Inverse folding.
């Protein structure tokens, strides 16, 4: 087996339009394809970043809530690399998204912060 990289991250949201706006207008992802799957009563939105397919955003009727944060079983968070953490936080703040205080990775010395998507899913910005 030769894994070549991560293909995509799949996210189920509670309010499709709100999450669609967040990932496209706030974080700047580009819509590659959007389909409505009638048999599942579900939207599937394919999103890319810098030309790379990255996120599949799904809507489903009445998805169960996440049990706890952030230490529940399953995906803990997704992380995106940024050039300048302070500039990225300023852009988030300008779009009414509040990030946690900046921390420094004890092993790499790099700065990072966390914020939440509309469903309170944890997202990390990690300075390059």
């Amino acid at each position: 087996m030769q894994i070549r990289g991560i293909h995509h991250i799949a996210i189920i949201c509670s309010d499709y339009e709100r999450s669609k706006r967040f990932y496209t207008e706030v974080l700047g992802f580009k819509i590659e394809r959007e389909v409505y799957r009638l048999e599942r009563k579900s939207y599937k939105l394919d999103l890319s970043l810098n030309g790379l397919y990255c996120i599949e955003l799904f809507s489903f009727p009445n998805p169960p809530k996440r049990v706890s944060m952030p230490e529940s079983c399953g995906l803990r968070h997704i992380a995106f690399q940024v050039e300048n953490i302070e500039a990225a936080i300023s852009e988030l703040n300008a779009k009414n998204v509040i990030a946690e205080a900046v921390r420094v990775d004890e092993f790499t010395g790099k700065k990072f912060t966390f914020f939440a998507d509309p469903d309170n899913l944890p997202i990390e910005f990690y300075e390059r």
